[in-house]
Amino acid sequence: MNKKLTRKEKKNEVVRIRSVQNAFKYNQMLKNGVCVMDDDLYSMSILFSDTNFSMAPEETKINIFTRYMEILNSLSTDKAGISLTINNRLVNEEQFRKKMIIPLASDGLDDLRMELNQQRLDDLSKGHNKIVAEKIMTVTVNADNVVEAKRDLDKAAYDLEGSFQSLGSECSVMSGKERLETLYSVIKPGKHLDFEYEYLGPGDSTKDFICPYAMDFGESPQYFRMDDRYCQVLYLSSWATEMTESFFESLMALEHNLMITLHMSVVPRGQDVSHIQYIIDDMRANRSKMIRRDRRQGGDGDVPDQIEFEYQQAMELLKDVQERNQRLFHVQLLVMINASSKDEMDFVSKDVQSVASKRGFQFLPMSYEQEEAFNAVLPIGRPKDKLGRTTVSKVCSVMIPFTTKEIRANESPIYYGSNPISRNMILANRRELANPSGWILGKPGFGKSWSAKEESMAVLLQNPNADIFFIDPQGEYRHLAEELNKISMREKFTVLKVDMMSNLHFNPFEVDLSDPEWLKRKSEFLLFVIAEMIGQGELSATQKSLVDRIVHKVYQEYTMALESGHETRVPTLKDFYNKMNEYAEETMNPVAADIAESLWIFVNGSIDLFAHESNVDMSSRFIVFDISELGDSIRTLAMKVILETLEQRVRENHLSGKPTYVYIDEIYLLLKDAYSENFLNEFWKWCRKFGGVVTGITQNVSELLESTQATSMLSNSEFCIMLAQGHDDVQKLQILFNLSDEQARSLLSAGKGSGLIKYGTTIIPFKNSFPKDTRLYEIWNTDPREQKRITEAKKAIRKAVIKPDDHPHHYDSESPKEKTSSKIATEYVKEAVIKAPTKKAEGSADPVVKAPVSVVRTGYDPNEY
Fold it and tell me: Which residues does the UniProt record annotate as the domain TraG P-loop (predicted)?
């Protein structure tokens, strides 16, 4: 029960809150994002995204430097300045885990979910995954009132947005709430700010919602306490003779909870030269005094080397401003460490100072001025008085805020490996893209089918509503469905073996009468089908006209029967064939007779796969259409008929809010002629219209790009996994996606499971590996040597551990039957470890933990191996 506060206690609480609030040196944070400070000072912040600077070739880097320097040079003289802030903030780990961890579903596949969860948790501990780098540019202006300030800030923000976009960085002006969330991330790392402007009452301040319970600046002159956290602000006290981009890049790359702020205040034209000249005149006067003093003492009148060096530096500075179009800036660089203990704070402080000292710089704590320094490091645009140094824009531009882009989707992300530059996880959700269809491209043996299986499995395990379909011309994916059935011990993952010996029949004449344009679409599709059957993908104008006429006749009879209420059935290819025959006999039309004759083999002959009513069971949410046993002459036709069958499923799923994923392996087979290209393009458009996610998989990039349609589809798709490529293919992809030379080289040297990933407008490198001691690795892997190794390991384990009279499913972990001293078993268990299912530990805060390794897992039938 909450204790009721006395009047005195309430008064003391108000005093405490107001005292803590006073540590934050701003007056108001307006809803529109304008921060009101003292002395008629106002600020606005712009959040901007990273660019692929690290992988850019030297020429591109120089261009970015030059453009960034132009941005700094363009600052008007009436601006009080700009501040660059890198906020390496802690993510809300609870929310991040919740987003990453797949909940169990008790459907027989929870072992696989736990393996995926464990991999994600393992990778979460690497790189900056617990750190999110917010990059903020804050503009400050002096104005008489907030209306005037808003006008000037809007103009400055508009100019900065356009300039940053020219560098490939996306920008947005931060609202008041977003700026408060950034401040709160400093005060309460990893916590969520519960605030809306509607919560403010009369006399309330936004500080009431973000300020900590207590701040102590008196414990030490070199750091301060903020609730239970230890914080320290360092400033760059000593600058090296030469600045390179590696200094600031290394500072940003530190894997700690840091806030880095660089204040830059431009000196107005006219005042810059006089300011430098004043410094030079003062140096000359001191220099002359030193010479005279040295001579009076019997010396040669030499000037100390350091004094001479500083004088030459000042002269060079004057040349920069007068002759090289450089602007003069007052700058200060501060770093705030935010740690959970003093030991951690001291450790991080040493890391920061080490980065500086290796490059000739020095960071020092702001002794006795931690409160003022705390406000200077916050992204509100208030630099510390009487701190910093004077330099030119080229030095400021070297402290460039770009390293590498990241891909981190917010809702239902799928893991695609890690960014080797930042070591951060790549988390994407294709359904968030405007055009989610995509491609997986790569040489044989470098992970194309693996990538498709891994993505589809994540979709299957994460989204119980998603339907997944594979068009499988090489028999690559049937093993996946069969293993899922074994693991789940349920026959719910379907392999449809489509060949001449099966009893499966697809009816290309089936229609969806709920589609208002069904007749037009079906007529167009049947032209593709008949062209594939009798014309090697092409029909003459006369043939097209005849086919279209008979199609309309067949459907006219069908719809008339439906409208009259008579019992009827969906037309088939046999009905079309009979109508064409009738028309040929009635009209003595040789073209019609020729079409009918050519269709005979597909109706009454050995290739009657598409001549009957459909008997395909499409009820499963995971279906592999295995067409590997079909001959080349009919395989492309089968792919088209299957895809057209899936169109109706895509539309139905869209109407019921279910996502559909379609994977087409060896997609180049659908690009053999203009008819096929048009068909595939129409299927692509259909999926986009109805929320389907289709993926084309191929090794033949050059052949793919010979097609104008395919090139357009590839360039317009917002998702693409590019694995290792040959030289010619790399050159074509470089032109198509505007890859840098470094990115192109990475494709030439990429190992298995690595390359480039395109997500929207972002293209970054990725590296994807998966633990070999998992069941998922076994069912995804198609490398014959690796499969042989796993099979031999299983046989050895079974031989050494499992006796013939053992029960095939259940073993007591303490039973002697599971215990063996066999050396061969021990060796194979080490080599090809079969992990036990990871389980939630009772009372554990973590969703999953690693369970001990065991030889046999529940749900596995050892007799099957």
Answer: 433-754
The pair of three-digit structure tokens given for residue 645, joined into one six-digit string: 């069958």
555-590 pLDDT tens trace: 999 999 998 888 889 999 999 999 999 999 999 999
* Cβ-proximal residues to 537 (8 Å cutoff; 6+ apart), any chain: 531, 636, 672, 673, 674, 675, 676
Confidence band for 305, pLDDT divided at 50, 70 and 90:
confident
In this predicted structure, the answer to whether residue 594 has a pLDDT above a threshold of 70 is yes
CA 186 – CA 170 distance, rounded (Å): 24
87-127 residue pLDDT tens = 999 887 777 888 889 999 999 999 999 999 998 888 877 75
> Using CB atoms within 10 A of its CB, is residue 822 exposed (0-12), middle (13-18) or buried (19+)?
middle
Q: Tell me how far apart the alpha carbons of residues 473 and 642 are, in angstroms, rounded to a whole number.
A: 12
Helix (H) or strand (E) holding 734: helix 727-737
Identify the bridge partners of residue 87 per DSSP, sorted by sequence position.
Answer: 134, 259
Residue linked to tokens 């470890």:
833
Paired with 335 in beta bridges are 234, 260
SS3 303: coil
Residue 311 has pLDDT above 90, yes or no: no
Residue 379's closest CA among 76, 139, 173, 175? 139
Neighbours of 723 (CB within 10 A): 26
Tell me if 691 sits within 8 A of 661, measured CB to CB: no
pLDDT for 615-672, tens place per residue? 999 999 999 999 999 988 899 999 999 999 999 999 999 999 999 999 999 999 998 8
CA proximity to 758, closest of 727, 714, 799 = 714
What letter does residue 335 receive in the DSSP assignment? Answer: E
Please state, in angstroms and rounded to a whole number, the distance separating the CA atoms of residues 379 and 388: 17
Sign of CA dihedral 405, 407, 409, 410: negative
E-state strands within 783-864:
none
Q: Would you state the structure tokens that stand for residue 851, as one six-digit string?
A: 């369970």
**182-202: b or e for each residue (b if 16 or more CB lie within 10 Å)?**
bbbbbbbbeeebebeeeeeee
Phi and psi of 41, rounded to 5°? -105, 135
Long-range contacts of 319-323 (CB under 8 A, 24+ apart): 320/392, 320/394, 321/272, 321/273, 321/276, 321/392, 322/273
Of the pLDDT bands very low, low, confident and very high (cuts 50, 70, 90), residue 816 is: very low
- Among the listed residues 845, 478, 774, 536, the one whose alpha carbon sits nearest the alpha carbon of residue 675: 536
d(CA 656, CA 659): 9
Nearest CA among 523, 765, 534 for reference residue 634: 534
Supply φ then ψ for residue 232, to 5 degrees.
-145, 135
Over residues 150-178, the pLDDT tens digits come to 999 999 989 888 899 888 899 999 999 99
Contacts of 835 (CB under 8 A, 6+ apart): 115, 773, 774, 775, 850, 851, 853, 857
Query: Measured on CA atoms in the order 52, 54, 59, 61, is the torsion positive or negative?
Result: positive
Which numeric CATH code is attached to 23-91+130-267+327-398?
A: 3.40.462
β-pairing verdict for 622-626 and 467-472:
parallel
Beta bridge partners, 362, equal: 238
Its sign, for the CA torsion 616, 497, 696, 787, is: positive
CA 435 to chain centre: 15
Q: Which CATH superfamily is domain 414-492+621-767 in?
A: P-loop containing nucleotide triphosphate hydrolases (3.40.50.300)
Predicted TM-score (pTM) of this structure? 0.80
Which pLDDT value is given to residue 326? Answer: 85
pLDDT recorded at residue 794: 65
Strands 438-441, 719-722: parallel, antiparallel or unpaired by DSSP? parallel
Beta-strand relationship, 660-665 and 692-698: parallel
Secondary element (H or E) of residue 550: helix 541-564
Helix pair 342-357, 245-252: axis angle to 10 deg: 160
